[in-house]
């Protein structure tokens, strides 16, 4: 362990230990509104669904994204899809958008600030959550959306964003979270800062002041806000995950249990992050199993 990392862990231990009280929820509640929403060119289309590029404004930033819609007339339940990483929506994300739209959901997905043509800078589980909730305000106004049936699905970085949106908004009816950024405070305390999350540590730009450092990490950690989640939550996590460790998902489940929340915990012994097995290969069989579980959860609470 480097001296710098050892000092970092000691600081967080002392700040947390001196609190003598449970760590509070420090998520930032902001004003959310739809501004300058526009549909763009068609990205994908077949006989039953269409996926279009979109843009909208979030805190004076132009944000890009995608909207996937069934072609069947009428009102459909809405799913806010929150991708992982910080490079925008990838091909695997597009698959999930198509699968969900094929099952009759309208799906709205943001390329958060600083990604894939969006204005601004990447913040990691901070302003990105605002971008999603502003897009939600736009999606609720679509003619083919049933405003009484809204869910959210998120992966990794987007899993943490999903948990934050559930804690910040009462619009949702159900949530599904995959190996999310559940406890970024814990991640900073324990992860190898030169490992898979090296770039994340740089992007967060943690302040040098110990108390401010503690606050900015807690403000990104939705596990401390589980009492605010009022809708059924489905959790998925690979036991081999080296990005966001499995024990964080176990801790989330324990918090939900403590607060009497409705949840389901799905664990996968043979995969780590992003449906990848120990050799780094994507396990498409488990991915399809997880999709069916997701679909069952959304159908149960949103149909």
Could you explain the architecture of this structure?
This protein has about 300 residues and is an alpha/beta fold. It has a single domain, classed as Alpha/Beta hydrolase fold, catalytic domain (Rossmann fold). About 35% of the residues lie in helices and about 25% in strands. The protein has 9 helices and 9 strands. A 9-stranded mixed β-sheet has the order 1-2-3-5-4-6-7-8-9, sandwiched between helices. A hairpin with a 2-residue loop joins strand 2 and strand 3. Helix 1 crosses helix 7 and helix 3 packs across helix 4. The longest helix has 19 residues. The N and C termini lie far apart (about 50 Å).
A few lines on this structure:
The chain is of the alpha/beta class and 303 residues long. Helix content is 36%, strand content 23%. It has one domain: Rossmann fold.
Feature tags:
disordered N terminus, 23% strand, 9 helices, 9 strands, Rossmann fold, 303 residues, 9-stranded mixed β-sheet, alpha/beta
Shape: globular
Q: How many structural domains can be distinguished in the coordinates?
A: 1
Mean pLDDT: 92
Q: Write the CATH architecture name.
A: 3-Layer(aba) Sandwich
Q: Order of SSEs, N→C?
A: HEEEEHEHEHEHHHEHEH
Largest sheet: 9 strands, mixed
CATH fold field value: Rossmann fold
Beta-strand residue percentage: 15-25%
Give the distance, in angstroms, between the N- and C-terminal Cα atoms: 51 Å
Report strand order across the widest sheet: 1-2-3-5-4-6-7-8-9
Specify the helix fraction band.
Answer: 25-40%
Assembly category: single chain
- Determine the number of helices (DSSP H or I, runs of at least 4 residues): 9
Going by helix content, strand content and strand pairing, the class is alpha/beta
CATH homologous superfamily annotation = Alpha/Beta hydrolase fold, catalytic domain
Report low-confidence residues grouped into runs of 5 or more.
Answer: 1-7
| DSSP, total strands | 9
The value of Rg in angstroms is 19 Å
What's the CATH class, please? Alpha Beta
